[in-house]
Amino acid sequence: MPTPLTVVIFGASGDLTARKLIPALFNLALKDRLPAHARILGVARTEFTDDAFRSHMAEMVQEAMTVAGEQFDPARWAAFATRLFYASADLTRPQGTALLGEWFRANEGPAGGSRLYYLSVAPELYPELSTTLGEAGFNQEKGGFRRLVIEKPFGHDLATAKTLNEILHKHWREDQLYRIDHYLGKETVQNILVFRFANTLFEPVWNYQYIDHVQITVAEKVTVGKRARYYDSSGVLRDMIQNHLLSILTMVAMEDPTRFTAENLRNEKMKVLNAIPVPDPATAATAVVVGQYAGYHAEPGVPPGSRTPTYAAVRFQVENRRWHGVPFYLRSGKGLKARYSEVMIQFRCPSHLMFPLPPGQELQCNRVTIVLQPNEGIQLNFQTKVPEVDGVSLQPRDLSFDYKEAYKEKALPEAYERLLLDAIQGDASLFMRSDEIERAWEIVDPIIAATERPDAPPPEQYPVGSQGPPCADELLAAEGKKWRPIG
Length: 487
Ligand code: BG6
Description:
Elements: E1 5-10, H1 15-30, E2 38-44, H2 50-67, H3 74-81, E3 84-88, H4 94-108, E4 114-119, H5 126-135, E5 146-150, H6 158-171, E6 177-180, H7 187-197, E7 211-219, H8 228-231, H9 235-253, H10 262-275, H11 281-287, E8 288-293, E9 311-317, E10 327-333, E11 340-347, E12 367-373, E13 377-385, E14 394-402, H12 403-406, H13 415-425, E15 431-432, H14 434-452, E16 460-462, H15 470-477
Parallel strand pairs: 1-2, 1-4, 2-3, 4-5, 5-6, 7-10, 8-16
Antiparallel strand pairs: 6-15, 7-11, 8-9, 9-10, 11-12, 12-13, 13-14
Helix pairs in contact: 1-2, 1-13, 5-6, 6-14, 9-10, 9-14, 10-14, 11-14
């Protein structure tokens, strides 16, 4: 008899559960990847019966799948829905934990089972909820594992992240903790490692001798919308740069682990973070520019006069032998021209060019562009000779790899599918260790401070649907570089 597994989602009436978690679990079930004996228990204060929860989720999942252009199969949903359960419980009260304990006793059977707890609640509740679970003994591995998945934001700065880690460690071992950065679950982000370390072509030139600079872009077309309550106290530096973009940077810059294990991988990522100097206030002020889209103040819930940045561009250095002197430019923003994320590796130009260029034409030197979304793929850009009987003129052209074209029969999985399955299987490679999170805050805190100082320039306005604020172009222009256009 396999050990029963319960995925317990706290905050089950919330948006993330309906938009991401249940669809991901449903997709895992469709792919036969969810253990046959797995059940999903939604927990929240809202009153629902099991059946009402099932119908509510059916509606939400159908809507999410329609938006994503996928087919919703009612018969397969009905089979999946038999695994869904709901407990209406307030875990801030003793009755809440008692009720939950009762559910486990009644449903897991005398031998117990494994449990994956998922904190999909407001971040202010992480300390209390994780402590309550620990104090109730729900962390004890009787009859199976106990793992705790924690959503971002993980802290608001270094001090709060450290405090949260300390609170978590009172009741949970580090290897029971799965801190999510959903960008690491994206197929294309994982492919950065395969591209680099399962090929011989690129690695010899993947260093300061050949690379001029790196651009990492995560651009969003959406604006803040209804999320202002969270977003306005966070801003793009906390919401995107400290976690998603720095994680991508570590994948681009790290050395290859000798063996592909969670600890090795995380050790290598940590070495990169350790090689990024924590900027002093003067350096931080010159390394960052921020913007805010026009109309941000009209979003519901944004306080008048808010200076929260919705766009940031930041320069980082990785001070080790591989990367000395190579700037990594990271930018992210909302309300931009397109939803578009990429890593662009700009190689140096040939030291001497024997082909004369027409006046005003600049040589576009080699680039590797790894498109993370939405048209996932890789482009290698190089110079070609334009067919012509007279003379030699040059044009850059792409060698392209397109994920959807190459894997027509295999849809790219959603990040949450991969991450939930990894957490169920106990593979923490794509989750953040406590030291990684803390180091990322240590690096980003002075940058945030530089933008929040009373004498800091206010975020520069940019129109919705644009490339972002002019100050981002100026940051690169001052160093003789240019952003690749978004979209
Ligand atoms: C989240 C941020 O972590 O990532 C959001 O809180 C952002 O503000 C989202 O919109 C972007 O994720 P994706 O997968 O849509 O690129």
